[in-house]
């Protein structure tokens, strides 16, 4: 182990790369003053072996590969990742910009296509990392002859270029919720906003969250505590691919072996042997019981709870993120919530709560009051709309108040409780981690704002040197970020993100009226205020625990009461509230990824902004193309095996339901607990906090009721047969390996996690076009015992009893 420490105690310098960069221009004029600044710092470090401006050397905190039981975030990022850097490597090359732009377009188009598929698949960062590396290495083979050759291929493909490309492509891959609403307007409200207004709306809705989150990055990204554990596998791959081969060959070999084994293996459960997606011994033993289907079934969407099913399909096991990187604290709380979810759903259904047995066990649609156990009747939404697409209360009363499934109502209740419980939990347990997010409200800060000279932002504020010294002196800051500051990387001024926020806000409020949103200006402002609050609290929660909360239900509820009878206003309010939070969290995630990859803050900012704008434009273009060509299929209930409008349908249905909140969710209405739970959640975490303060028993500190409550509604939709495998693998890695085999955990856990994800996602992408109909025609594998044909044969894949009344 000492050898590893000695090797990584000083920056690694690739002499071939340095030579090639001094012989030829390193790319287009994007590198300007920042690259010159970094080159100077790099030259000093190469000569002296340390930063000449500081006696503190962050690289002494490098403990890569040491076999210790990792107990906190700092030990994780200094033992799993190298704390060293080569500042001479430049991301400012034409190659990085070209590949990043291409992959941003590709990922945006692909994500939009999959949004309109029967089964939504998300373009992952690991997938983009692998593709970017292949293309980057291919371009590095171009001859360096003449100025054109050096321009296209200035040096060997390096880790900074790779990180720049991945961040840019990841920003493009984030599907814009605004396109969902624009599609709904086309499909259900016969409105088609002008392309210019629509594009600006999509861009502004994306960048608003980025501006808010960027201003909070010192609280939500730069501290060590803000681990963002989802990034550790990706950064492990960066190191395995780009560090010196003599040091990383074994790690790279393991990554490639696992990657290709999973690449070929996934063909079996995905296409040839789908029974492996979820094997239920109970359903195989009893194939004629709907009770067994509800409890043990789960290999198909909305089939059942998947209790005790075993999955051998990594795509489904890691559908919400690989269990190998989820912290033990999060795993434990989510497992408790999962078990309670099964009890809750089964209890509500078989107690016939809210006429649960007269509607499907699991569904997200609205149902007519005439529905019964043998005949589920969807609610006819067109009969309750006025000509201006508002709700007609008289028509609602005449048609009857719609019903929803007990599982879906339960999900809304526990999610609303969990959201407000999360706010209180963060204040009680993590106040010191989030309080600086509101430092601008201090009297001293407000006084500075009122100073007549405050607008001269280019003259005031903290200098780069002051910022550097403050960060190096702060023990709470991430060693990787300290290393970047020590090596001379220049931080992005706050006014850059403030400018993005202001510009996006102004564009958004103008275009709202151009697209006939029906959302008033004050509703738009309130939605952005909620986005800012939620980014701070839930961004901190995701950074600390790796757990992401879905805030959409509570925002739709608030919109329903603020804009009653106006479903379009509800959807637009949710776009700027929920999409703002989602975008902000993805920006924060990628900022942490870039920080751990030692990508300079200014190049990260450039990559994210360019990727977001490119992605938003192509999101809209692709959405328009699909809606134009598949209008009838997207508005049909069942869709086709290639295209489906289920996501837009669900979003529109929820907006309509919340627009009828007075009839459905208000106090005294049928589903009043959906609203009351919002208030109950404020109280839920308090007893455990008081008990811990009184007794100091660790159990009360370990329980996070906001996570438990969210997972109590986890199983309301989708494929649930993989949950047991998810927890089994998660506890094996985060408890057994981390505690009893730390040498394997530190060196291999996150790398193997990335390889499993990468191999799976690449082959799923290929299969989607080769055999699943993405190219126009599906090619089904022949029917046999391991592939019974599924819904096409009116069967469930796992042989649980099929219920023809609801298609499951």
TrEMBL record:
Family note: Belongs to the oligopeptide OPT transporter family.
NCBIfam families attached to this UniProt entry: OPT_sfam (TIGR00728)
Composition bias, Polar residues: 11-24
Protein name, UniProt field: OPT oligopeptide transporter protein-domain-containing protein
Bilayer topology term: Multi-pass membrane protein
Principal localisation: membrane
Organism: Phyllosticta capitalensis
Region Disordered, annotated ranges: 1-37
Source species, domain of life: Eukaryota
Subcellular locations according to the entry: Membrane
Transmembrane segments: 96-115, 121-142, 163-184, 196-216, 252-268, 328-351, 495-515, 521-540, 605-623, 671-692, 750-772
Signal peptide bounds: none
